[in-house]
Write a structure and sequence with these properties.
Elements: H1 3-45, H2 51-65, H3 68-80, H4 86-99, H5 101-108, H6 119-125, H7 131-155, H8 166-180, H9 183-195, H10 201-223, H11 229-249, H12 262-280, H13 284-294, H14 301-306, H15 325-348, H16 350-355, H17 360-384, H18 391-428, H19 434-460, H20 463-471, H21 473-492, H22 498-527
Helix pairs in contact: 1-2, 1-3, 1-7, 2-4, 3-4, 3-11, 4-11, 4-12, 5-9, 5-12, 6-7, 7-9, 8-9, 8-10, 9-10, 9-12, 10-11, 10-12, 11-12, 11-13, 15-17, 15-18, 15-19, 17-18, 18-22, 19-20, 19-21, 19-22, 20-22, 21-22
Length: about 525
């Protein structure tokens, strides 16, 4: 075999070993995501607005998942769904990059002999009850096998430390991070080269800087089609990476031309991300403002879905969360917020439909009630697919079902009763004295207040606020009695027709019915 053919064969072996290493890494992270992903998603969603908790959660997530990208996907999904505060999501991302140093350290350590035999128990577990663990062991076995092959091939070549210009090392590192799909995998390959003396300290750190910048670029590329929270998180993470790299750039090396040790590279990676976190946590407000300015929130989901001129699409009902009932119920609660906002707007428009000379408001209310039915059906179907035996989750499930049914009933009152009265009012040209309209307006204002409080009590899971709604019964009864007494006195004095009297009494009756549906919502929250 000629030297050219031998070199070509070695190149193919190197590419095969690299492909095996990267495939094993992908399979390992995929199995870890399947095993721990939902548990981590649930834990992160419970974070409070505490910097230490956010950073610690991100560190633990990436240490378990071996993938900062997986942590980013979980955090971005929770932030976009408003299950996690935007600030806390950013803190979690800062911690995730620090936690990535644990799997990077494992790749930098010497490979135990016969570690590739992990494939054997992995294959055995594939046919048992622990398939996820089997997938993880198979992936880890392939990863280690590829790592061993790469190390053996690199040892067969006389490698001398190279010192390419920094302008070349940076893009090469960034490209490696993008091609491998993981900065940790790219760092693992770099550690293998460093273990054979293939890179100098200056070149190794320049490649490391490029790998970190490539990781930030990959987040931006992944989030470019995701407006709102996801893109803002990617921008903030990029700013943090830039700060960490820029500060570490000026740290002097004792001997830049000496061969780089793998532990030096892992320590450099840790230092970049620790400095990024220490810089961004005190200055988190400017970073978040910059990210918000570059990726502004164009509109809120509530406003988008109460616009009946657009087709309704569920904003928060994520099928991927059905396997995690607490998060699925939280998503349903977010969708209920849209439904409640729509009903609140419908109640606000009732006077325009009743007393305005034009009928465009009535047409708008009919469209809005159709939207109420759409949202109610979507949430009901989503709740029906949530399976849980946890008593607390069952209580929340029942509460949510009660709330959406009561809200839908309010929509029916507006459509079937109040709009019918508005049509009758138009035909009969019934005129209301100013004092009557003021009294009815006061009554409707109290009903609207009760509905808003009941909806807020459900969203915040606030039983004391729900009790306040229930305590409004006496005020509602008093308002209803005053309105009815005033109508009766006007009828006795023959100041109005029987039709006008019936119209206003029907209004009072329907206002009271709306309140009692709001009261049932509050009662469900108070019991929960």
């Amino acid at each position: 075999m000629s030297m050219g053919e031998n070199g070509l064969l070695e190149a193919w072996r190197f590419l095969l070993a690299l492909a095996l290493f990267l495939y094993g890494w992908e399979k390992t992270t995929e199995a870890l995501r399947d095993r721990y992903g939902e548990r981590i998603r649930e834990r992160i969603s419970r974070l409070t607005d505490n910097a230490r908790q956010g950073v610690a959660a991100g560190m633990a997530a990436t240490a378990l998942l071996w993938s900062p990208r997986a942590t980013f996907d979980i955090t971005a999904g929770l932030t976009a769904g408003r299950l996690l505060a935007w600030r806390q999501g950013f803190l979690s991302l800062l911690g995730s990059e620090i936690g990535a140093c644990l799997p990077a350290l494992l790749l930098a350590l010497p490979i135990p002999p016969h570690a590739g035999l992990l494939l054997v128990p992995g294959l055995a577990l594939m046919h048992g009850a622990r398939k996820t663990l089997g997938h993880a062991l198979i992936g880890l076995g392939l990863l280690v096998a590829g790592q061993e092959m790469l190390g053996t091939l690199l040892q067969s070549f006389p490698i001398q430390p190279v010192t390419p210009p920094v302008w070349l090392a940076l893009p090469v590192g960034a490209l490696a991070s993008l091609v491998t799909g993981s900065p940790i995998a790219a760092l693992g390959v770099l550690c293998l080269l460093a273990a054979q003396g293939g890179v100098s300290q200056a070149t190794g750190l320049a490649l490391l800087f490029g790998i970190n910048l490539g990781a930030a670029l990959s987040l931006l590329l992944a989030a470019r089609k995701e407006p709102g929270a996801t893109l803002r998180l990617a921008i903030a993470a990029t700013v943090a990476k830039l700060l960490g790299v820029a500060i570490c750039w000026w740290i002097p090396l004792p001997d830049p031309s000496a061969p780089a040790h793998p532990l030096l590279l892992v320590t450099g990676h840790l230092l970049i991300n620790v400095i990024a976190a220490l810089t961004c946590i005190p200055g988190i407000a400017p970073v978040t403002r910059l990210a918000t300015r570059l990726a502004p929130e164009e509109f809120s989901a509530e406003h988008a879905d109460t616009d009946v001129n657009n087709r309704y699409w569920p904003q928060y009902l994520d099928d991927d969360l059905l396997a995690t009932p607490p998060l699925a119920l939280a998503m349903a609660r977010r969708e209920v917020k849209i439904l409640a906002a729509l009903l609140a707007e419908m109640v606000r428009l009732i006077p325009d439909a009743l007393f305005a000379e034009e009928d465009h408001t009535s047409i708008q209310l009919l469209k809005m009630d159709d939207r109420v039915d759409e949202i109610h059906l979507a949430i009901s179907r989503y709740l029906a697919r949530i399976v849980t035996s946890n008593p607390a989750q069952l209580d929340e499930w029942l509460t949510t079902m009660t709330v959406i049914n009561e809200l839908e009933a309010i929509g029916d009152i507006i459509e079937n009763n109040l709009l019918h009265l508005a049509e009758t009012q138009g035909r009969q040209r019934t005129q209301l004295p100013p004092e009557i309209r003021v009294a009815l307006g006061e009554y409707l204002h109290a009903v609207r207040s009760a509905l808003d409080r009941a909806a807020n009590a459900y969203q915040a899971n606030n039983p004391p606020l729900a009790l306040e709604v229930m305590a409004m019964k006496n005020d509602i009864v008093a308002l209803d009695s005053r309105c009815r007494m005033r109508e009766m006195q006007a009828l006795r004095a023959e100041d109005e027709s029987l039709a006008a009297y019936a119209f206003r009494i029907d209004l009072c009756e329907n206002f009271k019915r709306i309140y009692y549906h709001a009261k049932r919502i509050a009662k469900a929250v108070a019991k929960a």
